[in-house]
Amino acid sequence: MPQSHVRRGYALVVTAAVFFGINAGVTRIPMEAGLPTATYTTIRVTFAFLTFLVIAVAFDRSALRRPRGRDLLLVVALGVVGVAFVQWTYNIAIMRLPIGVALLLEYLAPVLVVLWVRFVRREPVHPRVWPAIALALLGLALVGQVWDGLSLDGIGVLMALAAAVCFAAYFLLGEELTSSAAEPLTALRTVVWSFGIGTIVMNVLGGWEGTSALASDASMLGRLSEFTVPAWLAMASVVLLGTVLPFFLYLASLRDLSSSKASVTAMLEPVVAVIVGWLWFSETLDVVQVIGVLAVLAGIVLAQTARHVPADELPPPL
User: What is the domain extent for residue 63?
Assistant: First the structure.
């Protein structure tokens, strides 16, 4: 693949991770205004789907064509697991676990992706990926300071691990649909149909209770607490900039990057979230956390420099 395409893939993933990380701060505004977690997730998925639908009608109506056969099954799986369940399980996890522990467990996803590629698909991976993942996970542990209050809730741990499985599935299924299929789906067609399925699932699981909270003005919190915005405006930002844009960019990147490289690069997201917490919410960022941020970035760089492997360096086929 041309290096320009590879660089484009990295740029898409990094941009998506940055928007997801910033969204971690924006999310607090409607939630602090009283919007229930389940309703928040339902609104987020539903309105993201409606946005994708409008974009498809306006710019590419071929994206409305229903996938068929195996592609339809993959899209349904992506919508249920990679769209609805990844958010539902993570929201439960962060209600029961320290945020750092929940993030660390969810970001076991790149490990799961690499294991799947290596032992299920039976494809070789560069040996450098393993220490890169280990370094990034160590960095996440330092950033989240997971040793702080490790009396863990069993259901919370189970949900965080389920979120990791769902997040890994998002990359693997997305890669299969957008680049590996006999007739790859466009990123827009994939998100239209997967978010459509996710919308059905979340309207069954989540519901619409407590939406009256969106009619009030909400504090922007942290260093911006003297300012207020309509809660619905913050929720609109969550939908457009925190969901539609990054989810689309992740899928688009899978035309240029493997799922293993994209998922490792996505580990930048919690680092951005920590920096947002420091700049916006005056959360302490101590020396250990700074070291953790640098370790995550080093792990990402180490993984992404593993672009070509001579045949004699590859692990033997299974």
Answer: 3-313
